[in-house]
Design goal:
four-stranded antiparallel beta sheet, three-stranded antiparallel beta sheet, 12 strands, about 300 residues, alpha+beta
C-alpha cells in the first residue's frame, strides 16, 4: 500500500516538473518574439520631408498701397447724362494685346464712382495674372519694349485719364511712361504697374459717375455718365513742350486747376539690335565694294 502511494507521488512530481519546463520554454519563446518585433520597429529608417519653397525666389509685394472704398458695378441704374468721352486706337491684329485690353475693360465697365469717392485703377482692375485672363504682350521695362504679362493695359488707364480730365475730376495719382507711347498725345498718358504705380481720380462733381468702356474693332472708348445734370464748366486741355519736358494743363472757365509734367527717356539700343545694324551696314559696304570692283574691271 505504502509502495503504491510512493509511486503515485513520484508520478505527480514528474508531471509538475514537466509542466514547469514546458511553461518556461513557452515564456522564453514569447520574449524572443517580442524582442524581435521591438528591434524591427526601432531600426525603421525615418522619412525626411522637404519642401521646394525658397524665399529667395518668391516675389514679395512692394509697400502696401492705400485701400479706398470698394466700388461696385451698376448696369441698370439711371445715369442719363454723358459728361465726357474719349477714344484711343489700337492694332486689333495684335491678338494678345487686344485680349489684355478687353480683360481690363471688362473690369472697369459699369463701375460706379460715387460723389466724393476715389477710383483706383489697380484696385478696380486687380493684379495682372494668367489666371485673371492676361497674356504676354509688349511692356516698357528698363528703357526697352519687351514681352511682359498684361502688356497694353496702360492704354486703358491712359484712356480713362484723358476722359476723367474732361469731367473736371481731381487727379489723385498719375505717372507718365518712361518711353514715348503713341496712343495718346505725349504728356497725356498714365502708366500703371501693380502695387507700385497707379492711376486714381476723385469724383468731385457732386453727382455719382458711371464709367462705360468699350473695346472693339481697333477703338477703345471711355465715357463717363452722371446720375444727374451737372455743370462741369468750360474745360480746356493743353499740352506744351519745353525741351524734353511735356506739360499738360487743364483749365476750367479760363482758370487753370491742374498741371502735370512728363519726361521721356530715349529707347535703349540693345546689343542684338546693334549687331543687326552693324551686320546690315557691313553688308551694304561689301555690296558697294563689289560693284566698284566690277566697274573697274569693265573699264579695263
Amino acid at each position: 500500500m505504502k509502495r503504491e502511494n510512493i509511486k503515485k507521488l513520484l508520478c505527480l512530481l514528474m508531471c509538475v516538473v514537466f509542466l514547469s519546463a514546458f511553461a518556461s520554454c513557452a515564456v522564453q519563446n514569447s520574449e524572443e518574439k517580442t524582442t524581435t518585433q521591438t528591434t524591427a520597429t526601432s531600426t525603421t529608417v525615418p522619412i525626411t520631408v522637404t519642401t521646394t519653397e525658397d524665399e529667395n525666389t518668391t516675389f514679395p509685394e512692394n509697400k502696401t498701397r492705400k485701400i479706398y472704398k470698394g466700388l461696385s458695378k451698376d448696369k441698370k441704374g439711371d445715369f442719363p447724362y454723358k459728361i465726357a468721352t474719349y477714344s484711343t486706337y489700337y492694332n486689333s491684329g495684335d491678338t494678345t494685346r487686344t485680349q489684355n485690353l478687353k480683360t481690363a475693360v471688362s473690369k472697369v465697365n459699369n463701375i460706379v464712382v460715387p460723389k466724393g469717392e476715389v477710383f483706383s485703377f489697380n484696385q478696380t482692375v486687380g493684379k495682372r495674372t494668367v489666371t485673371a485672363g492676361y497674356e504676354t504682350a509688349k511692356v516698357v521695362s528698363d528703357r526697352e519694349f519687351v514681352d511682359g504679362l498684361g502688356g497694353g493695359v496702360c492704354q486703358v488707364s491712359s484712356t480713362i485719364f484723358e476722359c476723367a480730365l474732361r469731367t473736371n475730376a481731381e487727379i489723385v495719382e498719375r505717372t507718365c511712361h518712361t518711353l514715348k507711347v503713341g496712343y495718346v498725345p505725349l504728356g497725356g498718358d498714365a502708366t500703371v504697374q501693380w502695387n507700385s504705380k497707379d492711376f486714381k481720380f476723385r469724383n468731385t462733381s457732386g453727382a455719382d459717375f458711371r464709367i462705360k468702356m468699350a473695346c472693339d474693332s481697333g477703338t477703345l472708348t471711355c465715357s463717363i455718365y452722371a446720375n444727374k445734370d451737372i455743370d462741369i464748366g468750360d474745360i480746356s486741355i493743353n499740352i506744351s513742350r519745353s525741351g524734353d519736358t511735356y506739360t499738360l494743363t487743364r483749365s476750367v472757365n479760363g482758370k487753370q486747376n491742374y498741371s502735370t509734367s512728363s519726361h521721356y527717356q530715349e529707347q535703349k539700343t540693345t546689343t542684338k539690335k546693334a549687331k543687326e545694324k552693324k551686320k546690315k551696314k557691313d553688308k551694304e559696304k561689301t555690296t558697294k565694294k563689289d560693284k566698284k570692283e566690277t566697274t573697274t574691271e569693265k573699264n579695263d
